[in-house]
Amino acid sequence: MQLQRRHTLKRAQEFAYVRNRGLSCVGRYFVLTTAPIPPTCAAGPAFSRFGIIVTKRVGCAVLRNTMRRRVRELLRAHGESLGKGRYVVILLRQAAAGADFPALREDFSSLLARHAKQEQHAPQTSC
């Protein structure tokens, strides 16, 4: 999956929408929250839009930017499994700063599997 500028969340309203109406799953290094894109949005169901949150708790600016690049790489590899027509917000937890890329990849793929399973069974609860 090729990430383009139109695939990113930019507005605080979009992040708030996902936080209020989305389904969340918590992993060791990530918190994954998804919500369907509202029908009034111009993006529609053609593709999903992604947002990455890395707080100052994670570390200095250099480390935060490195973590964002790693998450974008994970989304390129595994983003299609989230489906189309969704807002996806990924929050990096503080423990992610000390993790290497294979550990991040493993946690992210297990989080995606749990999220998909949870979404099938109870779309309005969190895991």
Summarize the structure.
The protein is about 40% helix and about 20% strand. It has helices spanning about 10-20, 60-80, 100-120; strands at about 25, 30-35, 50-55, 85-90. A hairpin with a 3-residue loop joins strand 1 and strand 2 (about 30-35).
Give an overview of the whole structure.
- The chain is built from three helices and four strands; from the N terminus they run αβββαβα.
- It is an alpha+beta fold and 127 residues long.
- The protein has a four-stranded mixed sheet with strand order 1-2-4-3, with helices on both faces.
- It has helices spanning 12-21, 61-78, 101-121; strands spanning 23-26, 30-36, 49-53, 86-92.
- The protein has a single domain, classed as 2-Layer Sandwich (Ribosomal Protein S5, domain 2), CATH 3.30.230.
CATH class: Alpha Beta
The second-level CATH architecture is 2-Layer Sandwich
General form = globular
What is the number of domains?
Answer: 1
Low-pLDDT residue spans: none
Rg, Å, rounded: 14 Å
Termini separation: 26 Å
Mean pLDDT: 84
Write the layout of secondary structure elements.
Elements: H1 12-21, E1 23-26, E2 30-36, E3 49-53, H2 61-78, E4 86-92, H3 101-121
Parallel strand pairs: 3-4
Antiparallel strand pairs: 1-2, 2-4
Question: What are the defining features of this structure?
Answer:
single chain, 127 residues, alpha+beta, Ribosomal Protein S5, domain 2, four-stranded mixed sheet, 3 helices, 39% helix, globular
